[in-house]
Specification:
53% helix; globular; alpha/beta
Length: 482
């Protein structure tokens, strides 16, 4: 009996996905560039299963049913291209290659087109959930060659996480790089969520002077509210974890955050598409700032920086902070969906935003209770341009506004940096302001560069230039794109 699917790459994610597939009755052929890794896997975690090994790509191909389905769980970039180049001569038309890594979506666009010319289907699939998700049910976001989806669908939906209604957290996203784009936005929202939680933690620790046990209790309680989510849950675990000396381990961790680039990609794409992804971009910059550890230590001493204590009823502040965190989190998702909408329109993907929310409902790092509400919002209005306009989320934003402003103002007052939470509030203030000061900005552009402007008392699309000084001339430089 030949294998149902082959998996290349036996790092922890690859191994766990293979074991997950085996649990669901699929015969998997496992391959790794180093034969020792295959032996270790077969004699270790895969021992006693139906998983079989392949010590060459030819052997892998020979052991698979047609159309062959081969999933790459290797480092994104050149490694993926290298494996594709080696696999193509061994495959037949109609066979399927799947990239399950954190790939930048333009690479997936390129690979889908290149392999189509050779008659081979390509799927670029985001996989989220970490090691545990891969083993017991991740969120899976496939896109690429639509002809390949029926062959992969049973496997992917079987191994994916399930909602409380037993719906698979996996569905077809769209053509070309749509799956990897949605995974990129997922990771951007993940950056934002994590940054928002750290800002709440710092406000409690440095502003309210709370102990780690107190903060842990707060996050446990918050997880029983609309903030119920994987990241809030693990934060409570982290705050309660003690080192061997009984002290909180989290305070012994160097305050420099790493990143693999997906948050940066999200910000770059937002800039390219003209979408104000302010919160997520601030979260990326916050990680960049954290890396300047030595400079920050010197600057604190140079400026004599000291945070002031936040005075007042601690419980009142904690509730205000909860509301500010919830409202900011909504803005993070709202901006992410704005970016996906623009990309869908630009690339002709026809994304189903309710389905995206469903795919993120379980298994993934940003899974949270209110993703069900996001799905409901897009089921009611598939063309919803701003998530905050939905009645459920609009109600939360309006009810949280006073507390949100209170926390943002106090953070500035006492010197606690909260870049993502305050930028979220500023974004909403700007988004809900009918007339912004960009009229003056456009006048400045016309003054020094003759870039023209439109008038509120004339039809949109009609451009004007003023010779502001009498010396600049009456000829315009360019019209602008609004």
């Amino acid at each position: 009996m030949k294998g149902d699917i082959g998996v290349i790459g036996l790092a922890v994610m690859g191994q766990n996905l293979i074991l997950n597939m085996n649990d669901h009755g699929y015969k998997v052929v496992a391959h790794n560039r180093t034969a020792e890794k295959v032996d270790e896997f077969l004699q270790g975690p895969a021992k006693g299963t139906n998983i079989v090994g392949a010590y060459s790509l030819q052997e892998l191909v020979d052991k698979l049913e047609s159309p062959r389905k081969i999933m790459l769980m290797v480092r994104a970039g050149d490694v993926v291209d290298s494996f594709i180049d080696k696999l193509v001569p061994l495959l037949d038309k109609g066979d399927i290659i799947i990239d399950g890594g954190n790939t930048n979506f333009p690479d997936t666009n390129r690979r889908v087109a290149a392999l189509k010319e050779k008659g081979i289907h390509f799927i670029g699939s985001g996989v989220s959930g970490g090691e545990e998700g891969a083993r017991f049910g991740p969120s899976i976001m496939p896109g690429g060659s639509p002809e390949a989806w029926p062959f992969v669908k049973p496997i992917f939906q079987a191994i994916s996480a399930k909602t409380e209604n037993d719906e698979p957290c996996c569905d077809w996203v769209g053509n070309d790089g749509a799956g990897h784009f949605v995974k990129m936005v997922h990771n951007g929202i993940e950056y934002g969520d994590m940054q928002l939680i750290t800002e709440a933690y710092q406000f409690m620790k440095d502003g309210l002077g709370m102990t780690h046990d107190e903060m842990q209790s707060v996050f446990i309680e918050w997880n029983k509210t609309e903030l119920n989510s994987y990241l809030v849950e693990i934060t409570s675990d982290i705050l309660g974890y003690k080192d061997t000396d009984g002290e909180p381990l989290v305070e012994k961790i160097l305050d420099t955050a790493g990143q693999k680039g997906t948050g940066k990609w999200t910000g770059i794409n937002a800039l390219d598409m003209g979408i104000p992804l302010t919160l997520i971009t601030e979260s990326v910059f916050a990680r960049c700032l954290s890396s300047l550890k030595d400079q920050r230590v010197e600057a604190e001493e140079l400026f004599g920086k000291k945070e002031s204590i936040v005075e007042g009823d601690k419980q009142v502040w904690i509730e205000a902070l909860r509301q500010a965190l919830l409202a900011s989190k909504i803005i993070s998702y709202a901006q992410g969906f704005m970016l996906m909408r623009e990309a869908s329109n630009e690339n002709g993907w026809d994304l189903n935003y309710g389905n995206v929310a469903l795919m993120w409902r379980g298994g993934c790092i940003i899974r949270s209770a209110f993703l069900s509400n996001i799905r409901d919002a897009y089921d009611i209005d598939p063309e919803l341009s701003f998530l905050g306009s939905d009645s459920y989320f609009k109600g939360i934003l309006e009810n949280s506004m006073s507390a949100w402003r209170k926390v943002a103002a106090k953070s500035m007052d006492v010197g606690i940096p909260m870049p993502s939470m305050t930028s979220a509030l500023t974004f909403l203030d700007g988004y809900t302001t009918a007339r912004l000061p960009a009229n003056l900005l456009q006048a400045q552009r016309d003054y020094f560069g003759a870039h023209t402007y439109e008038r509120v008392d004339k039809p949109k699309g009609e451009f004007f230039h003023t010779n502001w000084t009498g010396k600049g001339g009456d000829v315009s430089s360019t019209t602008y794109n609004s």
